[in-house]
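Standup notes
- HV: blocked on the assembly model, inputs below
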Amino acid sequence: MKKTITRRLNQSLLAVSITTLLSSGVAMAKSDDMHQLYEDNCASCHGSDHGGYLAPALNSETLKGRSPTALRTIVMAGSFDTLMPPFYGKLSDDEIRGVIKHLQATPKQPNPAWTIDDMKKSLKVYVKDESTLPAKPTFQIDNIDNLIGVAARGKYGRGEGSRAIFINSVTHQKVGEVPTGVAAHIIDFNPANPRWAYVKTDTAEIFKVDLYSMQAVRSIKTGWNGPGMGVSRDGKYIMAGSFVPHNAVILDADTLEPLKTFELEGIDPDGKMVSSDSGMIIGTPYADIFAIALENAGQVWIVDYKKEGFPVTKIEKVGRHLHDAFLTHGGKKLMVASYDDSIVAAIDLEERKLIKQLPAGCVPHVGGGSAVVVDGRTLGFGTNFGDCDKMVVSVWDLDKMEVVKQIPVSGGTESPAAHANAPYVAVDIISKDRRARTVQLIDKKTLEVVKTLDVGGHAYFPEYSADGKFLYISAGYNGDEVVVYDSNTLQKVASVPMESPAGIFSRGRVKYMTRGLSPDEMEQSK
Amino acid sequence: MKMRHSVFMLAGLLASGGGQAASLYAGQAKAAAVCSQCHGIRNPSADAPFPPLGGRDTEYLKTAIKQYRDKTRVSEIMNAIAGSLTDKDINDIAHYYGSVKP
């Protein structure tokens, strides 16, 4: 609010002082103002380059011919069943009209830079002397693996409601809240030191969080937008990648200081040289490497973080528009979703090559992925974003790398959850109607949907507690709670209120690598 | 979907002997579609300039929404949003929000 008042004051001061100036000067000042207003209120979802991100691209091309009145209504009242909040009362009518005019006149911007020097300057230290931090958790918890982190977006994707919220998954009580300013998107846990977690926001800030005292100790802005983040198996490095600009960076996990940036570009499967968004980034328990997917270039790069200069091995022609991935076989194999050709590509991280492209549903989005061992077979589960005739969850035999079944489900899906001790694989239905309230449960043995939970809101991102006894689900926007179910009886056992919760991340993930596998799987790889 | 709603409502009406029986279920669906985007379910966003509705007095809510609908209380946005609500909708919504614990 304060910012808006300041801006209005500036505007009126400007209005007074410009009476003697040329009108072109006025238009210029107004456009700069509207650009700032866009950056402050819209860009975290719609993209700093006006090219879209979680939400559609807003530029002169995409908004061509759209009625300014209709657009004003959407901005004022929000868009039902999407993350778009109502800006009535937050922005003045003049501001809303102004930003729409600005957007309809602004082309998609060239990739705005964010260099290693920009990153260095953005480093903030909240706790100078980390030796003053408590030696053990300041809240009641038997095992730190029982922590579950929730990325609460906040209604506006920024502000008071935007927090990383941590829950003890045995008692279902909140044990900490870390404000992140902008919507938290990804929470990763340090596999080597249980006290650290890393939270990445929609505007690419990474917070280093002390879980024992539940506070941020440092933060750094690694780009403008982009969710990619991975932590090395030794807990010493973080790799982060952006959509805007097209780069990735390796950080010192302790100080968050940037060590090296990588320009993401390469030849795509159709032979074209392209600059690329960063897709998923993952550290594997199998080796001292990061794997990063180059979305548009269709390549997976492997970075050796223990070697001088962080050398890169490029695996080309993996798929058209890569996005997310999950690990299998002790972290030696990587299953990467490819949007545009509806496949999931299996990569051998040991041989550093593509093994096979497996058929998926429409627009595969594997989320964190899931793998379960049933009757001696390791089965991988892949969700699919797209709304099409063939709405399925793919099941693959990960040893033979072949399709076992395409399980029909009631809509598009975003993220599967599984646990070695839980009987069902949970998938979130995201099709934009009443189905969005639901999560479907697939029996691990029969590979059929056996139950549909009506969670409410826009239910997504299921996650099991580390012991597998409870299933956590975000009721998302219009839900404003995380709902907890008993994994076996599927009875609702608790509700944890928060603003627009999205991704849920169990610390147990560092133990079982991929959700659904037993911790023994990890032991074998050591 | 609509058919099923009206069957539900009809059953509700018959059971209670008609008149002003409110359907919390219909109220919840309507609130989710019309109100909660701004006012939230239990609470509006911490950053939002909108008043909370959860747990408010049912009669007060009914009166206020009707005033907005009939434009006897003036608010550009509320007059537009409440404009399409029927008496039944308002009754359902007011009972639903009245029943919510903030």
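- HV (later): unblocked. Chain B has one domain: 2-99. The mean pLDDT of chain B is 82.
- Next: hand off to the docking folks.
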